[in-house]
Amino acid sequence: MSRFFFISLLFVATLLRGPVSVLLIILKNFNSSLRERFEFERKNFLEDECRSFKKDGLVADYCFEVSSEGELEQVRPLIETFLKQNKRIEILFASPSVESKCLKFARENIKNLRVLRLPIVTHFFLFQAPRKWMSSSKLIFCRYDFFPELLILKFLGVKFILLSAASKKPSWFKSEVYKCFDVIVAANKTEQRYFKEHLKINKIFDFDFRIPRIFDRVTNAEKTLDRVSELKPYLTFLESKSPESKLILGSAWVSDLVIFQNPKWKEVIRSGQIHLLVVPHDLSVSSIVEMKNELKEIFDDIPLYEISKTKMEFDSNRSGIVVLNMSGVLCELYTKFKSAYVGGGFARSIHSVLEPYLSGNRVFCGPKIHRSTEFDNISELTPGEIHLLNNPESFYNLFIENASSMPDQSVRNDLKTSALSKMETIIKEIESC
């Protein structure tokens, strides 16, 4: 009965999408957010990267649905593997935050890759609807975004695969949705056990597709950093420092600076015993200014340097704090450290802890970990190498206590080997379903 109700609800919701879309298009004239979304989706009509394979009489092998940048990074290794096999790929994406990366990805692979902004407002226009644009018979979801117009495709013969599945915030709706999938790849072993216990699906695996992607970036870190000329003097300085005397704050927010409440931090940073690199998550001008002002407030008389594509203030002869105003190199920079604090844990949620961990760091973070399956993964592998700061003042003592102990590289090597093998197994299952 529950299943019948879910399917009925799905069909009703899908039927209502047309009228709701018309209403949203009308309301956009009175609401700036709706108007922005309408203009965002309207670009699907104008760009070659959004041209459906159907218009060229072609059929894609796989269609991926991603919500934002984090989800694209999760599935990117799989997409790249398929592209190397000369497969045709479609990507549906929801958030404007991932637009530039999706378009760049499509331009680099225009023969085999097409993208479409998910038509939430403009669904009324028939060729904007996913079922009209999509040509693949396999739809691969990442984490969530279970829109009715996508779920209904299950009943039109489309095979469903779910990657990075997590049971956080379970609900009746999600439980019914999970039953639609032919293959589920859980985010970790704990999540895999949950799905096996609650769902009657034989093909349930555990894997994080970001693992091979991060390992690839770690392997090529030196080459990547060598191409950034603005960093060379600073990288030379980092090489001269011992592992226990360096600390990186990755994806940092101003709220994370509460971890420096202990006055001993000022002593060790001023004396040069500890060097601090801060890499903000938000690189907007206002955010950088706010971050630097807060650091000046905390560390008043300690030199504060900014490094960017247009600015190089660093002086290796004077101990100070560096703020890096540059994107695309954080993962690579983690390889230059052995201790990393990951931001977001005193705001909404921590950012990626896998990047510093796989780069060879002990990891510290704030208490907001409820959305992070990565934290769970590391806790399962080496619980002594990830530290949760419920009390921000405890950070100094934790850092000093662990500074001289080296992370277990053998665990990471084993993980790299097993990840490649497991990825091959999952790809075969996806291909055969």
List the helices and strands and how they pair.
Elements: H1 2-27, H2 32-42, E1 62-66, H3 69-84, E2 89-93, H4 99-108, E3 113-117, H5 130-133, E4 138-142, H6 148-151, E5 159-165, H7 172-178, E6 183-186, H8 189-198, E7 204-206, H9 210-219, H10 221-226, H11 232-239, E8 246-252, H12 264-270, E9 275-280, H13 285-299, E10 304-308, E11 321-325, H14 330-334, E12 339-342, H15 354-358, E13 362-365, H16 373-381, E14 386-388, H17 395-402, H18 409-432
Parallel strand pairs: 1-2, 1-4, 2-3, 4-5, 5-6, 6-7, 8-9, 8-12, 9-11, 10-11, 12-13, 13-14
What key attributes describe this structure?
433 residues, alpha/beta, 14 strands, 43% helix
Summarize the structure.
The chain is of the alpha/beta class.
Can you give the helix content as a percent range?
A: 40-55%
Question: So what's the overall shape?
Answer: globular
Number of strands: 14
Low-confidence stretches are: none
Describe the structure.
- The chain is α/β, with parallel strands linked by helices.
- It is built from 18 helices and 14 strands.
- It has a 7-stranded parallel β-sheet.
- The chain starts with a helix and ends with a helix.
